[in-house]
């Protein structure tokens, strides 16, 4: 019949029935062979170690340190650090500071030198370290050279020390793993007895400690050496919020016994 399909012959239908079914390929997430599983495990372990090196054990939130930012691009008229608007002059302890592609500490007869300011009540402070080295860091709750808190970089060991100095005796109270590379920003927000340490905008640790809670000073610390670290900027402001203690705040990143260069 013109314009209509004729039914297939019995021979053609029989030939089609003998054709093998199409092959379907399946892909699994986990390899089935032993070699494949070993390779998959090695890749996962490498990715995990890279993540720890960059971020550490993990953050418990993100915040922005608010305040006035001072860039260390040019020295003040006296050759020292440029003034922070609204605050008094810098106070240098155990050395001097200059500006050379950032703030550079020059210790005299001590291992480190400090540069501090008197901040407003409930201060928040953050520094950005252009070039990292063991011993460079942030100072807060500063009362005098024998009484203050700090967050010190230890990139040789891949992390940071949170420490306090009371009556001249230093105690490392917590170690943070990761985020120890050039360009890192380290900050602190304070509210009453509590404060939290922020690395690159991520809250890494929160404390409830009344030691030196009334000490108003904030600032920077820098070690000696032929190739000194450089601090790009400092931000100083006030924090008018509250800081809550949450699950995991008291957890400690794994401490390596030698992760305390320069401590007493």
Question: In terms of topology, how is this protein built?
Answer:
Blueprint: H1 10-17, H2 34-55, E1 68-71, E2 91-93, E3 95-99, E4 103-107, E5 112-118, E6 123-131, E7 137-144, E8 147-154, E9 159-166, E10 169-177, E11 185-191, E12 194-199, E13 202-208, E14 217-223, E15 230-238
Antiparallel strand pairs: 1-15, 2-5, 3-4, 5-14, 6-11, 6-15, 7-8, 7-14, 8-9, 9-10, 11-12, 12-13
Structural class of the helix and strand makeup?
mainly beta
What is the percent of helical residues?
10-25%
Largest sheet: 7 strands, antiparallel
Q: How many strands in all? A: 15
Tell me the distance between the termini. Answer: 104 Å
Strand content: 35-45%
Strand line-up of the largest beta sheet: 2-5-14-7-8-9-10
Low-confidence stretches: 1-9, 22-29, 42-59, 254-264
Order of helices and strands: HHEEEEEEEEEEEEEEE
Q: Rg from C-alpha positions?
A: 29 Å
Number of helices: 2
- The averaged pLDDT comes out at 80
Shape: globular
Describe the structure.
The protein has 264 residues and is mostly beta strands. 11% of the residues lie in helices and 39% in strands. It has helices spanning 10-17, 34-55; strands at residues 68-71, 91-93, 95-99, 103-107, 112-118, 123-131, 137-144, 147-154, 159-166, 169-177, 185-191, 194-199, 202-208, 217-223, 230-238. The strands form three sheets. The protein has a seven-stranded antiparallel β-sheet with strand order 2-5-14-7-8-9-10. Strands 1-15-6-11-12-13 form a six-stranded antiparallel β-sheet, with no helix packed on it. A two-stranded antiparallel ribbon has the order 3-4. Strand 11 (185-191) and strand 12 form a beta hairpin. The protein is globular. The model is unreliable at 1-9, 22-29, 42-59 and 254-264 (pLDDT under 50).
């Amino acid at each position: 019949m013109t314009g209509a399909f004729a039914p297939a012959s019995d021979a053609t239908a029989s030939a089609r029935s003998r054709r093998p079914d199409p092959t379907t390929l399946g892909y699994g997430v986990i390899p089935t062979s032993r070699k494949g599983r070993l390779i998959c495990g090695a890749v996962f372990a490498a990715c995990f170690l890279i993540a720890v090196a960059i971020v550490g054990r993990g953050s418990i939130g993100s915040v922005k340190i608010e305040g006035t930012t001072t860039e260390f691009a040019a020295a003040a008229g006296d050759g020292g650090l440029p003034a922070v608007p609204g605050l008094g002059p810098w106070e240098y302890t155990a050395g001097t500071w200059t500006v050379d592609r950032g703030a550079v500490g020059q210790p005299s007869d001590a291992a480190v030198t400090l540069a501090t300011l008197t901040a407003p009540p409930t201060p928040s402070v953050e520094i950005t370290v252009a070039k990292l080295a063991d011993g460079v860091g942030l100072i807060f709750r500063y009362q005098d050279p024998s009484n203050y808190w700090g967050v010190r970089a230890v990139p040789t060991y891949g992390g940071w020390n949170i420490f306090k100095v009371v009556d001249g005796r230093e105690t490392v109270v917590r170690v943070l793993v990761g985020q120890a590379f050039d360009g890192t920003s380290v900050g602190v927000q304070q509210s009453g007895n509590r404060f939290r340490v922020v690395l690159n905008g991520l809250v890494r640790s929160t404390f409830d400690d009344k030691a030196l809670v009334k000490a108003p000073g904030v600032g920077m610390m820098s070690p000696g050496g032929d190739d000194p670290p450089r601090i790009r900027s400092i931000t100083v402001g006030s924090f008018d919020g509250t800081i809550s203690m949450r699950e995991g705040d008291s957890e400690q990143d794994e401490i390596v016994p030698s992760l305390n260069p320069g401590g007493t």
